[in-house]
């Protein structure tokens, strides 16, 4: 069974713009699917449809996940809270008792390599570290489905490469179903088990490439 499945999805906005048409794709546990395409081809719309932030005009979208996490490009962190308290937020919203949510937040920060930085506030952290906090906040919910909207697009090259390596290590450990959008072909190839190429206006999927696990990665 698929964690996320889109079948023949078309989205027309009230403005009349058709953002995407006839899009079918799916992802499941242990699959990291990347959608790569130029700006304006409907990638963000696709992710918003997958997360339920938008509804499809036609076609079907099925999600079979207890928890869905979303990671955006700018680390949307609460500036007045420490790294720890940012990651704890998810547990607070769900009413998880304090000790338990602290413990989970600590474990999530450890997973992204931020042990020792729990008390730092976002402005004290580098761009890469802020992105790590965002990742920890997404992972602390133990998502079955993780959606990534070009999360590393604003990072410098070195930090971006570090984050790609980090995300891949975490993915191999956590085995959630991943859907990642980017405009960078090399990033897509590096990260994923399957690359879908999206193109046109409205956007449609024009190619699909499987990436073997043993594909050489630095
Ligand atoms: P991408 O993420 O690939 O850059 P988007 O999904 O952001 O593409 O946009 C695809 C198309 O849909 C663009 O033409 C964009 O202007 C249009 N679009 C996106 N969101 C809206 C909206 N809320 N209302 C109207 N048009 C939109
Ligand atoms: P753009 O983002 O402008 O589309 P590219 O598609 O060239 O640029 O992607 C560059 C990014 O992809 C780099 O920041 C780097 O992190 C990553 N990258 C490029 N080549 C590799 C590689 N061989 N292995 C892993 N990551 C790579």
TrEMBL record:
InterPro entries in the record? AAA+_ATPase, ABC_transporter-like_ATP-bd, ABC_transporter-like_CS, ABC_transporter_ATP-bind, P-loop_NTPase
| Entry-linked Gene3D superfamilies | P-loop containing nucleotide triphosphate hydrolases (3.40.50.300)
Q: What keywords does the record list, in alphabetical order?
A: ATP-binding, Nucleotide-binding, Transport
* SUPFAM superfamilies given in the database record: P-loop containing nucleoside triphosphate hydrolases
Q: What would be an example GO MF term here?
A: ATP binding
Organism expressing this protein natively: Pseudonocardia cypriaca
Q: Pinpoint the ABC transporter domain residues.
A: 4-218
Q: Which PROSITE patterns match?
A: ABC_TRANSPORTER_1 (PS00211), ABC_TRANSPORTER_2 (PS50893)
Its protein name is NitT/TauT family transport system ATP-binding protein
Record-linked Pfam families: ABC_tran
PANTHER family for the chain: ALIPHATIC SULFONATES IMPORT ATP-BINDING PROTEIN SSUB, TAURINE IMPORT ATP-BINDING PROTEIN-RELATED
């Amino acid at each position: 069974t698929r964690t996320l499945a889109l079948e023949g999805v078309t989205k027309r906005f009230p403005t009349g713009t058709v953002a995407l048409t006839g899009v079918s794709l799916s992802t499941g546990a242990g699959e990291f699917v990347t959608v790569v395409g130029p700006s304006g081809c409907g990638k963000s719309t696709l992710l918003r449809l997958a997360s339920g932030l938008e509804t499809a005009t036609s076609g079907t979208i099925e999600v079979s996940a207890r928890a869905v996490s979303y990671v955006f490009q700018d680390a949307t962190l609460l500036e007045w809270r420490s790294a720890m308290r940012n990651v704890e937020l998810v547990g607070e919203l769900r009413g998880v008792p304090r000790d338990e949510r602290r413990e989970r937040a600590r474990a999530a920060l450890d997973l992204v390599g931020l042990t020792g930085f729990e008390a730092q506030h976002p402005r004290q952290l580098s761009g890469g570290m802020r992105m790590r906090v965002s990742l920890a906040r997404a992972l602390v919910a133990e998502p079955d489905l993780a959606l990534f909207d070009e999360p590393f697009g604003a990072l410098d090259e070195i930090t971006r490469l570090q984050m790609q390596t980090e995300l891949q290590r975490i993915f191999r450990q956590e085995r959630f179903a991943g859907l990642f959008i980017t405009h960078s072909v090399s990033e897509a190839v590096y990260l994923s088990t399957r690359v879908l190429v999206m193109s046109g206006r409205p956007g449609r999927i024009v190619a699909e490439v499987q990436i073997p696990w043993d594909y050489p990665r630095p």
